[in-house]
Protein 1
Amino acid sequence: MARSLTRSLSGRLLILAILAVMVVEVVIFLPSVARFREDYLLGRLRMAELASLALLATPEGMLDPELEAQLLRRADAASIVLRRGGARALALSDPMARMVQETYDLRDAQAPELIADAVMLLFSDGDRVIRVIGAPAAGMDVVEITMEEAPLLKAGRAYALRILQLSLIISMFVGVLLYLLTRRLLVRPMARIVASMAAFRENPEGPEPVFVPSSAVTEVAVAEEALAAMQTELRAALRQKARLASLGEAVARIAHDLRNLLSTAQLLADRLEGSADPVAARVGPKLVGSLDRAVALCQSTLRFGAAQEAPPAPRETPVARLAAEVADAVFPDAENGDTAPVRLEIDVAGKLCVWADPDQLHRVLVNLVRNARAAIEGAGRSGVVRLSARQAGAMVEIDVADEGPGLPRKALDNLFQPFRGGAGRAGTGLGLAIARDLAEMQGGALTLVASGEGGARFRVSAPARPPGD
């Protein structure tokens, strides 16, 4: 029970609240006891002053011994000395009084001194005789009394005990109140959050509704909203993954059949290389190369559907030759003239090489160049797609820039996210996601450098040399 109390948040807050109130009460306790002691002694001085005045009012300043003893008992004093006009006169005294062991002057006593005297009182044995000097009222006579310390000690300890009991009651009340408030405002909402998280972990795709925030405490409300958003996004991601899994299976089947069709077309295209027609002889090798890449793409699609994407086979690849092949794939000769509404410009040094898998890097660049062309045509504009490359240290940076309208906000927010980052109605965003994965497999990266009214610029980076060179 005690261990569970100290381990729980509400239990710890209860203990801390009690301790905090007790500390505050201790800070108040010492001045309070000091004030009680001072008031007690001033009360004795006032009683002594009244007894002295009664003595002075009698003829010849004489009192009956029994009356004198009664006045001393009323003042709780063994002797009374009255100072008037600089003179010091013994007013009343007990002939059996003991020797004075300590003197306290209340006239100029400061708070630290009073507190120290009060603490010493609580820990004394009360067997002393003390002298107390003070002026019971401002502008009045100075009165000295000698008295036994035992009654003062008894009254002081009784007062301190009452203060401690009251402090404990207040501490318990505040602690319980804080405990109940904490349970209501923090622990219960947190328990709801934990229960929802546990249920969601057990069955994230279950029919249970998403957590509904309800707390009025700002910090807890933020946690509840974050949990609700996380559950919503995770369920959407799980549904998307399920759709992707189904789509992947369908694509794998299509790719399997398409590979067979392309293999047949590849065999027929091989005959064009030996054709006497100059156009067929010129176009034939390009068509064969395109069919080879299409067959390889189908093979990689099948491996991707089986979660076995082929690792890259990097080698030294001239970037200029790669750029020319990309131009042939996206901008055939008939579509890349000076009069074409959209044309491709290539700015690559002839000797610049990259250490990468040429087929995979070709897929990345074809995807980017095709997207750039579609962005310009989709905006109803004419413009230029620029493919440029340069070496930057150990990396080669290949930029693909267009003069289109730039990426829309939705595409920017979900960039490189399959089926979420498409720039147009027909776009799925899958191409950019695949391109980024392929670029990272080469040891490089695919990033968006800029996007705006002047167009978009993507950058592909890949190693210039093999690792360790």
Note: The chain has two domains: 2-177, 311-463.
Protein 2
Amino acid sequence: MAQLLEDAGRWTDRTHLIQGDRRLSFAEMFAAVDRVAGEFRAAGLRAGDRLLLLAPNSPEWVISMWAGLRLGAIVALGNGWWSGPLVAGAVDVLLPTLVLADEKRADLVPPASRERVVAVRTVREWVDDTGRSPAPLAPPPAAAEDDPAVIIFTAGTTGDPKPVVLAHRSVIANLHNLLVMSGRLPQDVDPGRPPAVSLQSGPLFHIGGLQSLLLALLGGNTLVFLEGRFDPEQVLDVIERERVTWWGAVPTMASRVLEHPSVPGRDLSSVRSVSMGGAPVQPALVERLRTVFPNARRGMSTIYGMTETGGTVAAASGVTMAEHPTTAGAPLPVVDVRIESPNADGDGEIVVRTPGQMTGYWGGPLDGTGSAGGPDLIDPEGWVHTGDQGRLVDGLLYVTGRIKDLIIRGGENIAPAHVEAVLLRHPAVRNVAVLGLPDPDLGERVAAVVQLEPGAGVSEPELAEFAAADLAGFERPAEWWLRTEPLPMHDSGKTDKRTLRAEWPARRS
């Protein structure tokens, strides 16, 4: 992976990283990487050691990642939203030589390991110290393609994130897939073409964030970060100020930006591509995006993938999305996808085999206390079992739900995603979450939390009648919660069904 810096060497004069008023060119980043790598080396970081990044998006995060790889270290992308026990568990499993952390997250590191913490503000001083030449560094250590390069933690919502190991081969193979799919192989990039400006509104510690970072590096493009947590108004401000051309988001983030009252007065003409992933994308949302971002009408895209597969598995854009609005797209060039144990409708578990997939978990999944264990998801034939439900039709993948997110009502399996998709077709419905509530007779009953469009006057009986046209009797919600306020979401952008389920009994009482 460190050799990717050499491939980006031709872009030295271009601006690469922006956050607020800060701007770093490729040349400035390369020099900063060498300075920070020298400091990390002086602090004891060596090839094969673990460097844990535990900080929000910033140029220092990016530079520290490259500095660790420059020294041959394995860089672990810690989740910036972890609680103290999960940070302690990660430190216990990884045994990092160094931990990059801001003040807030440094306090979560166990006291016995705090001497390993390097503060973000200290790295900022090294980055800004442009008058000091770094000590000479040896070339990056040689690495076999299956040697670990990065560790990315799955964004678990139940307290059990898993440290996914991606080898150098995994990262490079996924990058090749994306570049071939988009027609942007480095040798095909016109050096005279103005650089794209990408807004990274999601966290860098997710696989999608790493993908965005690497694509911007090789393409000679500018990557813009928000300051602080996700905020729809700031997204709109940044798009206007920096003339953003590409924006990647999860559907909930996109929806919240579209709902901001200032949208009608904004100049969003610079945006030519909007890419969504992380959750199923509804056709109605795509149409709303096309209206608000008119110059991105042909540049809408959706991707499907997961951390354990090394990133993107399938993608759809342009004509494909217009003709098949509910598809996740076609598998990427060297990705094998099949459906395991399909039912009569062709739905079954999506299983994947790709050179980009993980080599396994580092020490097993964490349980929040430092305990590690649990089987890998890769079967003896090399297939990754995603836990997602879907079907393949004419070479296109359709994701229809989660195998593990099923509601089991009286012995009948119900995919919440299917019920949600039906309800989202109603013009009065802006967002919906379907979940199972305990039932003393049936085991679980179907419940729907519906966020209505402002001013909508639809009733529960009307929604029930609408759903009855497309849902089997056992799939229809037995309980409703109609509301106008947005549904709660995790910082990853996915609906927080755990909170909704916990709040439901209190609401009923």
Note: The longest strand covers residues 429-439.
Protein 3
Amino acid sequence: MNATHRLVRLVRRPEGLPAPDDFALVQAPVPRPEAGQVLVRNTHFLVFPGLRTLIGGETRDVPLPPLHPGDTLFGPAIGEVVDGPLEKGRLVLHLQGWREYATPAAGECRPLDGVLPDPVGHLAQGSAAYGALTRLAGIRKGDTVFVTGAAGGVGTMAGQIARLLGATRVIGSTGSPDKARRLERELGYDATVLRGAGPVGRRLAQVAPDGIDVVLDTVGGEQLTAAVHAANHGARIALVGALDGQMSPEGAGGSAPAVLDTYRLLTRGITIAGYNGVDHPNVEAEWETRFGNWLRAGDIHFPYTTVRGMRHAPSALPELIAGRSFGASIVEL
């Protein structure tokens, strides 16, 4: 084993959106596990947009600590046990990504037991989409579903899940014509609303002339405003993200205001609720079982963009925020 390893640290709080120079690839001694800790050699870790909020320091109501200059980034990671109380060679899921070697406590490691055909699937962001669609939205056969931010890590999973749960028509939004084509050709979206090609509400009315029954919103902002206008009587809106605020150069990623027509919410009996996985502890296991079955049957795909090697990791979050990923963004070591 090498005496040193590489990790990514925050150099400074960004002014506006994070840039590669706000992060540094640092060489450090391989950590020695203390009592109760496991030494893990990471193989993959997830680049998640919530890091923007943690870096910005606006972490009120967020169950993760803020990141300060000098701190090592963190997030979901898969690795192989090298030393400690767990079986050597065992693959585990933990939260100490953004480094080649990690020392989580044994209780913070989740051994991967083969429920998914490919361990990397444990980094998929489908649990929130599945939980929101089953616990909040309650999809019914025949529903028309609108997914905002459909080309992101949650959105690419959400459209497929909605279809498998019985939706008849699935519509997504994205800011890229190429991503729009991929959503329709590869992931079964019936139509897409292209952000930046005119008012979102007008395009949404064109592709959903009979209205929308379910909204899975990962963005907020103008897209959520338009979704409320297009919602049918009794529509259910599930909020699972706030990318409009997190990806804005204004602020620090901890706020995402949106204009909502409360008159329509009232007169159409529309429900709107935010999904928090902590409130639904049984969802994760249920999702992984169904996800594994769907993967083996070829009914669902896990699209992700691979960032190859630690040397590219400092630019991974800025690239994600710039919209250069399709699906999840995963660093492969």
Note: The two ends are 15 Å apart (CA to CA).
Protein 4
Amino acid sequence: MAEERYDIAIIGSGPAGLQAAINASIRNKRIIIFGTEELSHKVVKAQKVSNYLGVPLVTGIELKNAFQDHIDKIGIQITYERITNVYAMGEYYALMVNEKMYEATSIIMATGIEYTKPLKGELEFLGKGVGYCATCDAPLYREKRVAIIGHNMEAVEDAKYVNELAEKVFFIPMFKEKFTLPADIDIVEDVPVEIIGEEHAKGIRFNNSELFVDGIFIMKDSVMPDQLVPGLELENGHIKVNRNMETNLPGCFAAGDCVGKPYQYIKAAGEGCIASLNAVSYVNNIKEHQ
């Protein structure tokens, strides 16, 4: 059960999400913004940014620091939690973080474009032996065989947690960083190509082998927006929006790289501004008719 209902929830802490948060905050809306401690990891990686109005010829780190300084002065704090699902509930949206739920009248998607392409069979078996949240669903696989396909270091901690419940855990690392796991977790050094099964997922096919398990967790940095928000309409792999940054779902807006090219920081910030202004108007209209 959510403790309070926010006016606007923003998913993503890049230029689009931060600009949306700034605009909504200035207009006295109760907001919550979900992101990472890196704030905007794509910005940080830029060696030189030459086309951001007002801050010429800066490094990505300098631009990121300017973003941080701006939100600090306004009093905006990032919530460092990963949203696993968003559900349209009619009058509001329910945003799920493991077993916790947040509520918001309106949402702004600013999730970027770094999505991991689904494996063959992944979407077919989602909810049928395949899941994205190990801490949510691990108890379902108590004393069973579980495979974890990890795309980030967070998956290592998830594997340790699942290992406390499952009979056997197999870890398939999809990243290059060094990590340490308990000795009883088997590490599979092969590339997964397909989730196999019939009515229920029963295993993973690799380039050179197959592994049969009862459950499979795929731990990604981000998932496709229509998997995150059921019913969200996409167009050419991006969230479909109009000039007001409205999606096909009432009260759901989107901005930044997730809505399409060009993938430019200043374009993302501008769209975040538009999305926020229209989300504010949407919330105001809802309140006037309550």
Note: The longest strand covers residues 100-109.
